[in-house]
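Chapter review: from sequence to fold.
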Amino acid sequence: MRKHQQEQIQKLVTTLYEATDEINRQFSRKNIPTVINLLRDCQDAAIHMGEFIENFEGEDTRTVELLTEYHTSLYNIAMEIETIHVSFIKQLKKELRMIENSIRNELKPNKIEVAFFPYKASMWDSLESVWMAANEDAQCDAYVVPIPYYDRKPGGSFGEFHYEGGDLPDYVPVTHYESYDISIRRPDVIYIHNPYDIYNTVTSVDPRFYSHELKKYTDTLVYIPYYSTSGGMSEGQKSCSAYYHADYIITQAEKYRGFFDSSFSKKLLPLGSPKFDRVVRICNNPPEPPAAWKAKMTGKKVYFYNTSINGLLSNTQVFLKKMQYVFSVFAAHDDVCLLWRPHPLLESTLDSMRPEFKQIYSKIKRFFIENDIGIYDDTPDVANTIALCDAYIGDSGTSVVSLFGIAGKPIFILDNNINTEPVEDDWRGEMIIRGFNMYTDDKWLITRGNKLYYSPDNNYKYQYLCDLSDHAYGDYYAYTLTFGNETYICPRNAQDIIILNENKISKRIRLKKYIERPGSFSGAVSCGKYIFLIPLFYPAIVRYNTANGEIKYFDANLDIIIGKGSGERLVGGFCVQNGYLFIASPVDNRVLAIEAESGKEQVLTTGGNNAGGCMTLDSDGSNLWLMPFSGTIVTCWNPESGEVREYSDFPENLKCRHINFGFECMERPFSHPAFCGDYVYLAPYWSNMYIKLNRVTGESIEWQPPFDTPNSIKNGYYSSWCKSWFLYPKGEAKKFYNLFSLYDRKLYNIDLENSKYEEINIDFNINELKANEPGFKKNSEWLQYCSEESVFNTLSDFLEENITGNAFNKENQIAAYGEIAANNDGTCGKKVHEFIKEHLNGN
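The token string follows.
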């Protein structure tokens, strides 16, 4: 008998107690016909209870025997009701107590009913091993009830209906959702893998199966993520609709607790991922490939190409070009086999969120299939496919990466920006990836892979000094600030500061570890003896005192300096002036001022009318210049006098174009400026020109630099977020500025007064760069062991097994992924089932 069934019987006993009290009241009022009717109702209830119990427990139970005796007593009382003494009430209650005790002791729950509600067959692996454990448990009745779902139309309404119950593995017995009345069955446990309910913009399960509806009919609702992770988690998984209604949320490991909203902390069970259970089981005993695949696979290494939704949405045009490039590379390598498996919701996502690209995608897909470039995999079971493949290529932010990681098969992460083979000097795009920072020391340069290079003669001729992290990638550090003989390496994604003394790491300053994701800080700047770290996701501005090592955290005014625009998290521009750190708002005209020495904070306003926020903030010595995130109003503000002037009279042909998506806009027009006499030179961020602005008259003209500047990014190896920026002036006259052109990674020294320039050669030893290429290595906290596509390790290099750096090591990979997955030996499902079962038993 199940707990729910025992509770139903116990509720009926409670009703009989209530009926007995009513019989007593009516008997005292001499209302005999009503008493007789009530006695008959109690007899009917006793018969119903006995039949109900025998249906589950069989005959000859003591409880049914007691119910029979109770039924007889009711009959005898009815026969003698005209003359019986009122003491019969005590007798009935005594018999009910005996029945109640018997139900509690004899009819203890010995069965639980567990229902699994998958919607996508391709996501069944997130539930399967838990179902297997429940299905093998003699004390458990397990039901798999696939539920229907709908595609979303671009406007959000329901589109095409889908039911994938027939696509689950043959060994899984399926119960149709119309045959399983949850309001009657009331399962003890329900497992789901869809957390979004109404808030999914691509698909929606039938609203009858939203989590808040399911919770009405079960004691325990458990959400198991449909994904697994290689280390990181997206912001979108922090808080989902189902989390509010679920009793438990299964997480991959304890380290992920910090990714979830703290209000859900007590619900989190770090027991692993059933997806890993399945891939371990199937890779240990691979299936026979389909006949159509076998001929293409025989005698060749098979590469699993994954095209993910995140990759598609981040930049659809670039993503589609990358697909074409991958197909062309494989077409030139007859000795390998490409297996292309798009995300199962990729086309639905295109239909609902990028419909303008659907025709292009369909053409590429048709070309792949019709030209027999490889295997097109739309089967529902990814684990079977993984077992048949030798290696992974594709995006990093997808569950499939972690499945290959647990399986111990090589992972090669593609850069979707790269769609050509590298040519000479393309290494510059990757090594000088962030360029030069206006607040940092050019003697030091942190390159891709957390490598620290330095220029001994401070002449931009760099040589390798050391690794800043044990991780091969992850962009942990980005900024260098020098104080006397010490250089401080400041974090971007890390949460510590490295001190360098005499070209050696002498100390690491550990900050409070608040976050478990990348994006800790957006910048660093010095003010006197202090270093200030500007947060992105870190929950405080950090001030470090280089004289005594004191650390202070400022968290009171983060809402001033951090905001949202165009769906992005934005941080306002910052600079120092006269002993103060100023950080502007990215969405309005407020500015946070912190006196460096005292730490006193003030929230100021510029008084300007510009509501476009501030992207970069620069000092000309007296005034602060605010370049907008949105619009083209440039603000000059004196924080001491309060005087403000706004400039907006720019050439009519000034335009901005989004650097990722290419559409015309009026966002992020200008980068860090230069100041020379009465003129301010505005460098383009997303705009189409340099501007020479007369700060006195307000007049402006387009300024042509005395050298050629590119209008577009050189190629995919030169990843860029803007066009260029000025760096702080050199020399006593302060008219010589360096300008860094990000599109082609070139640095110029300019005499603005005389319009003369010199290109500064940024020099590395290419053999030294290759010697420090990591190859296969532990990547970061958010992506474990892998190799990444780069100028020194192209896709062709990977196919030809010509990797620069460390060769693939299966044992190292499995060990790395073991650190981020509990019960990664294939026992997660069993552990989940055991825990939930113990919870139901009150343990």
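Two observations follow directly from the output. DSSP finds 22 helices and 47 strands in the chain. Residues 295-420+771-818 form a domain with the Rossmann fold fold (CATH 3.40.50).
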